[in-house]
């Protein structure tokens, strides 16, 4: 069953059933990793373009690897957003990709809505690999996948997302995905990093970390951009660590799944003992990221050839 | 040749008109309004089923000339105004050069002579609208400006704003304030609230506008100046004004059609045509603005016509320019949403769009009576039409109402006795010599 949509722009528009479909497909993809030949011919002859307007080695290599394991032709275009002064640049790029016959365009951009703009102007499927503070659906899906893999379910779990929610696309996509899968979602952080009316999304909002931690099953720790301090959003790194840093003392319970989308500021938002501890699944998130991205590429291209099967 | 308008439904509360009349023009003057006029040798225009109004005034437009002619010129902006039923428009000084000097005002006036509707220039408050030093407000007044404003930018320095108000009072010029605390607004691109949160776009809080309204009210009270608040957009702003008016201060305010009709929810989908400053606010704000108008707290509806090129409004939301091209859709939007639905009467609308702005700008609007200058708008409530970017007269095709089907449309605009816009047979023609 291919996805019923041309693009994957965010988890806000996608149903719980579709998310389940993606996670199930990811499971089949992950199984391929255990084979001696970690490559299948499913997307042979298809062209996947990685269009990165914002540097991200991790996400980009994850997509590269995913596409290659499916035997697709991969092309990477990197542009700095600072050189993008007007929308026509993105539109021109879209037209070029169209001519080159791209089947899927994976886009990373620093401006919210850029993926949607591209999707509206191109016939190829668009996979949002992060657009500003708006959405990062593949990261959220790999987080959901990891939770389901480790906890056996998502429904009914209490998940806490901690840190800079205001500027985080990871937080937003996680919130939509977790809620659609039936989890209880809490967000915590300094009030200056919690966006206005976030409760309307259906989450509980905390500025007191210890209260937020009560009874949780999963904690997703977001990276703190150190430049937020310069913009007056919190007074010092020291103070942030004291009130919102996750250390062993705060979560001395091995049942709490510890996640972080990376890259980490060790000793700031997360103490090394936690990052490397027993309940941390941070490295597995990276592995699962490849499986989830393989699943999505397959499902998006699959909309054109429904009869092709994995295996 | 004399023009005789037959069978129109004429509405003009200031001259006690609300009914079927004939109206006769000779050159630029109205010479008779009677139940029935029959005269030989006239151009006869049958307006059966149509509504004839005193010419509308938009006191807040951006005509972009000089300096940004690719966005609009005085000529094209006035064509858009005529197509929207406006016979007089005031233009903001944020041109290049800024209209902070007599020469630029003279240039605008010269260009406006060739245009189809009346243009009233507004001068800047500070040199270069940079908020640092007062412009030569007295000379601007002598050159003919009817108000001063740094619109597009706030006057952030309270001391400068105080002096501007004090100084402008001696020339009886209203100070039109673009109320926005730049620090609070930051690099926001839409209203800060639920929708900015889920869309991941940077927000402009309502407070950015409200703290400046509060400051300006305090300064207006201190100086006794006439303060006019441009494009009011928040519920708290309406309350601040309600309070100020209760205390008898000389404060007026305007609201735009888009703030009366749209909310931040419209930004979903990231259409840059919804990007405007101040931003589209919450539904609670929108409702408070409608009520503020009804209660008389807000005096005027102005379009804040802000035309931009196709490229300015293309692509990523953050990079697009702020502004909506508003002249051509205003009256139909207001008719369709308010008059046709019995929210406002035509009489109220004429206060908001003709008599209110005339009074604030200190210009005479004789309305529809014998001896008055013939500035007239004719509206056909039976036409329904689809807003089409391609067909807009303005160079700026940036409207969030594109493809909306609206009820009612301007069919005739008459300026100083000349028919400058004729849409009686659906051709929507601008006429330069008649
Ligand atoms: Zn303004």
UniProtKB/TrEMBL annotation, chain A:
EC nos: 2.1.3.2
Gene3D superfamilies listed in its UniProt record: Aspartate/ornithine carbamoyltransferase
Aspartate/ornithine carbamoyltransferase Asp/Orn-binding domain boundaries: 155-300
Lineage: superkingdom: Bacteria
Biological processes, Gene Ontology terms: 'de novo' pyrimidine nucleobase biosynthetic process; 'de novo' UMP biosynthetic process; amino acid metabolic process
GO CC terms in record: cytosol
Domain Aspartate/ornithine carbamoyltransferase carbamoyl-P binding: 6-149
Keyword Transferase applies: yes
Sites where the protein binds carbamoyl phosphate: 58-59, 108, 136, 139, 262-263
Binding positions for L-aspartate per the UniProt entry: 86, 169, 223
Pfam families found in the cross-reference section: OTCace, OTCace_N
Gene Ontology terms for molecular function: amino acid binding; aspartate carbamoyltransferase activity
InterPro entries documented for this protein: Asp/Orn_carbamoyltranf_P-bd, Asp/Orn_carbamoylTrfase, Asp/Orn_carbamoylTrfase_sf, Asp_carbamoyltransf, Asp_carbamoyltransf_Asp/Orn-bd
Pathway where it operates: Pyrimidine metabolism; UMP biosynthesis via de novo pathway; (S)-dihydroorotate from bicarbonate: step 2/3
First-tier enzyme category under EC: transferase
Catalytic reactions of this protein: carbamoyl phosphate + L-aspartate = N-carbamoyl-L-aspartate + phosphate + H(+)
Description of how the protein assembles with itself and partners: Heterododecamer (2C3:3R2) of six catalytic PyrB chains organized as two trimers (C3), and six regulatory PyrI chains organized as three dimers (R2).
Role noted for this protein: Catalyzes the condensation of carbamoyl phosphate and aspartate to form carbamoyl aspartate and inorganic phosphate, the committed step in the de novo pyrimidine nucleotide biosynthesis pathway.
HAMAP family in alphabetical order: Asp_carb_tr (MF_00001)
Protein name per Swiss-Prot or TrEMBL: Aspartate carbamoyltransferase
Top-level taxonomy: Bacteria, Bacillati, Bacillota, Clostridia, Halanaerobiales
Gene for this chain: pyrB
From TrEMBL, chain B:
Broadest EC class assigned to this enzyme: hydrolase
Catalyzed reactions: (S)-dihydroorotate + H2O = N-carbamoyl-L-aspartate + H(+)
Pfam hit, one: DHOase
GO cellular component, one term: cytoplasm
Cofactor comment text: Binds 2 Zn(2+) ions per subunit.
Domain of life: Bacteria
A single MF term (Gene Ontology): zinc ion binding
Record carries keyword Hydrolase: yes
Keywords: Hydrolase, Metal-binding, Pyrimidine biosynthesis, Zinc
Needed co-factor(s): Zn(2+)
UniProt EC number: 3.5.2.3
GO biological process: 'de novo' UMP biosynthetic process; purine nucleobase catabolic process
Domain Amidohydrolase residues, every copy: 338-421
Positions bound to Zn(2+) 2: 151, 178, 231
UniProt pathway: Pyrimidine metabolism; UMP biosynthesis via de novo pathway; (S)-dihydroorotate from bicarbonate: step 3/3
Entry binding sites for substrate: 62-64, 94, 277, 308, 322-323
Domain Dihydroorotase catalytic: 49-234
Positions annotated as active site in the UniProt record: 304
Residues that hold Zn(2+) 1 according to the record: 60, 62, 151, 304
Functional note: Catalyzes the reversible cyclization of carbamoyl aspartate to dihydroorotate.
Membership in a protein family: Belongs to the metallo-dependent hydrolases superfamily. DHOase family. Class I DHOase subfamily.
Protein name (database record): Dihydroorotase
Organism, scientific name: Iocasia fonsfrigidae
